[in-house]
Every structure is written in structure tokens, then in C-alpha cells.
Amino acid sequence: MRAFAANDTQPSRRSEPAVTTPSAMAHQPPGAVVQTPLAGVRGLAPSQLQYLQRTLSNHQLGELLRRAYAMASPVGQSARPEVQAPPSAHAVLRSRTPLVQRQPKPNTEPWLTQVDDILPRNVGLLVHIHRIGQLTDRFTTNQLNELIGLIHANPDATIFTRDQAGVPGIFALQDTRIGNRLDVAAARFLLKRFPAHSPTPRKSDEKNAEVFSEEVVRDAYIRFHYNAILPGKDDPVPADLPNEIRQNCITIIHALAPQLFKSESVVKQIEKRFKKLREKGETYTMVHTGDALAGIGVADPRVEIKFKDAAGKTTNGDTEPTTLASSAWDKVMDKVGNDYGWHIFGMAIMDGHHSVTLFVDSQPEGKALYWADQWRIDPGDDFFQRPGAISGFRQYEKSGFDTFIETKTNEWWKDVHRPDSKCGKAKGKKWDSGCRYSATLMLWQLRKVAQP
Question: Helices marked H in 85-183 — which ranges?
Fold first, then answer.
């Protein structure tokens, strides 16, 4: 989710090198970069000279090249004032391309004086020029002044970009930024789970309809996390957050679900069906939404999992639900099967009382499940998630996943089954029999192309 002003049209990118440079520079981790001598500047290709010119001022580039060429002369001659200097950088570049003036000024570009503090130190000149070029290729001067300033003022963010992630960390902090709030944990997760250059190749059977691209899931992660950090309807808006209200569980699904698909005709069908569902409160639920997606052909028919009551008998809500009749985790993983890559599910808890999107990454080393909704993880909160989970996109193990579903289903069933609940007040004297909600859990596996 982009956090710059509405007039910012810069697309969100990952951290691939913006300009072609030697692979030894572009792909080495920050800690592995070595010093590049000035002699390395000599003999640059025209495109590299243009890149240097665009990054540095013409005067700075001229001095750089003069120093580099001077190093090629014998020591005894280089100290003699009568030695003819090599052609200036201005002359070299003028023969190849029109000059583009680039004169950074500290008073208008303070980020230039701050960036050295937030990036890995002791790097070579060309490496530093390359990383500055990456930043200026993606961001405008005003955007860099704002973003680099935020990172510079945030000790955790500075440590993250300077000591761990470098320029990719800056990109990740921007992509997971909410207003003027930086989320280092969310940025670190983004780089780890969705790296631009994975250290080990991922397996993804995207020829199969049930496997979605990594880019689709990456964008969904950013959107779910962004929404979860926003204040609720009745909460005050912190100064560092945008003046937006967090979407509830079904609203964000209606907003994001069409973006999971690439076919324009499919998207139009989904938006048309969703608009119809939103016309009535009783149809604006995850149950109706999942069935609508199945009707279009972009989801399997629903899978239902019943609950058992305290006596061990299967219940549909007539008695208080306590445990799942069978594992929801196992059912999801059975549906994923052996197809590698990202799988997406819709899930309705207690007849749609809560709406959830599940993302499962299946790889040879195992499967990882993420629960996406609108809930922010505040200090002390326990959603039975894995340690270090991210707000809006929590990772689970099997025990925590099934236990959390059971816990919330039981809690919500009892909240409804009371004379003073919304249902109880509406039913009056018949609240006991009229407010026993169905506890059935429902799942829909999505597919990226419509099938009959």
C-alpha cells in the first residue's frame, strides 16, 4: 500500500537494480560489498557514464574521471604540472549524449545528507552510486526527503536498512508504510517471504488454476496489513496515521477479492455479484460471498465442517459448540494437495459471523498458512498465532489454527445466545430458541480462472 500523496503515481516496485550494473555489485548482500578503487571508473561504457552523470553533478563527475585517469599515469609524471590532463568528463559525455544537469543541493535535498547514515557503510564508490540511482529512479526528491527522513528519525528502521537490508529495506519500509508510520517487522517479513531475488528458487505450479502468483499474494499482504493498522470506527486517529477508518472483515474481502484475478471479464462478474450482495444486509456475508464466487466458477463449492458440543455430539448450533468435528487445518491442507505455490481460501466462521481469507504457501520443505483479516495485534493480544506474526496477516501452526477457530466460535455463539444481545432483544421472550446460531465452519478454495 502506497503511503504518499494522491498525486504520487510512482508504481510500487521490488528491489531489483534499476540500472544495469556489474552483477558483483547488484547482487552482493550489503555486508559483502567491497571497496571499488577509482581506477575502476576508467573504461566505463557509455551507458555507465550517463548513469554516473545523472547521479552526480557534472562537476563532480569531471573531477572523478580526472582523478581516475590521473591514477593511470606514472607516479613521477603525475606530479609534474606540465603533464597534459586527459579529456574532461564534459568532453567525453558531450560526444555521446546531451548533458543533463543534476545539481543536488543540501538545502532542498536533505535526504542526500541523511542517506549515508541509513545505508551500509564502507562500500565502494560505484556501489554507492548504484544504490543512490535505485532510489532516484523510484522516488521523487520530495518523496525521498520524506521517506529517508522518517527512516533517519526511527532507530529501529535505521538499524534495519543500515545493518541488514540496505536499499531493498528502504523499498520494503515504503511498501509496508501506513501514513508516516514505519513497520520494521512488516518490512522484514515482506523481504523474507517475497524477496526480489530468492536465495533458493521457489516452486510454483501456476499452470494449475488453484495456484496464484507470488505477486498477487504480496499485494494482498500489503493491503491486509495496511488495513489492520488503521484505527477502528470509534478510535481516535493517531497523528502518524492517515485519516482512514479500518474496513471490517467482509468489506475488505469485497474490496480485495476482485484484485486476485487478472481476467477483466471475471473481475466484472465478481464486482457485479458483490454489488448485488451489498444491497441487503442479510446477503452481505462471507457465506453469500463464497457461494457467489463458486457460482462464477472461481471457487470450489463450499466445504462444511461441523462442531461437537460438550457431550461429544455433533451440533449445528442447537447446543453450545465446543470443538471441531474434524480438523480445519487438515481439510485446508488436503485441498492444497501436492501443488506447489500459493493457494487462497475464503473462510466463514459461525455462519459468517467472521470473514477470513487464508493464504497457504506450499513448498517442498513444508506448508505455511496465513490468516488474513482486519485484526491488529496489540501488546498482550493472543490469537494463538505463531510468535512474530504480522497484524492482518498472521501465521499459524495446526494447533493454534484449530484452537483459535474453536475458541472464537464458542465465544461468539455465547455472545449471541443471550437475552441482552442484539438477537436476544429482537427475539424477546423467544431469545433462547431464536438465538442459537449455526456453528458450522465453511471453506471455499479459490481458483484464478473461471471453470464450470
Answer: 89-94, 111-118, 125-138, 141-152, 155-159, 166-175
pTM reported for the whole predicted model = 0.78
Q: Are 332 and 371 in contact (CB under 8 A)?
A: no
165-217 pLDDT, tens digit per residue, is 999 999 999 999 999 999 999 999 999 999 887 777 889 999 999 999 999 99
Give backbone dihedrals phi and psi of 309, rounded to 5 degrees, phi first: -90, -175
pLDDT per residue as tens digits for the range 125-146: 888 888 988 999 999 999 999 9
Contacts of 125 (CB under 8 A, 6+ apart): 36, 38, 40, 41, 64
Terminal-residue alpha carbon distance, the chain: 34
Q: What is the helix (H) or strand (E) element at residue 25, kind and residue range?
A: helix 23-26
In the chain, % helix, strand, coil (3-state, to 5) comes to 45, 10, 45
Three-state DSSP class for residue 323: strand
For residues 376 and 360, is the Cβ–Cβ distance under 8 A? no
What secondary structure letter does DSSP report for 374?
A: S
* 31: DSSP letter: G
Query: Backbone phi, then psi, for 396, in 5-degree steps?
Result: -130, 150
Q: In what helix (H) or strand (E) does residue 305 lie, and over which residues does it extend?
A: strand 303-305
Q: Distance between CA atoms of 30 and 128, rounded to whole angstroms?
A: 11
**DSSP class of 87:** P
Q: Which of 308, 336, 327 lies closest to 208, judged by CA?
A: 336
Residue type, 72: A
Helix (H) or strand (E) holding 442: strand 441-445
* CA distances from residue 148 to 11, 12, 142, 157 in whole angstroms, order as listed: 18, 17, 10, 10
Nearest to 446 by CA among 213, 240, 245: 213
Question: Over the stretch 39-83, which tens digit does the pLDDT of each residue have?
Answer: 444 445 555 555 655 555 544 555 554 554 444 444 433 333 333
CA distance 37 to 79: 20
∠ Cα 261 205 189 (to 5°):
70
Residue 234 has pLDDT above 80, yes or no: yes
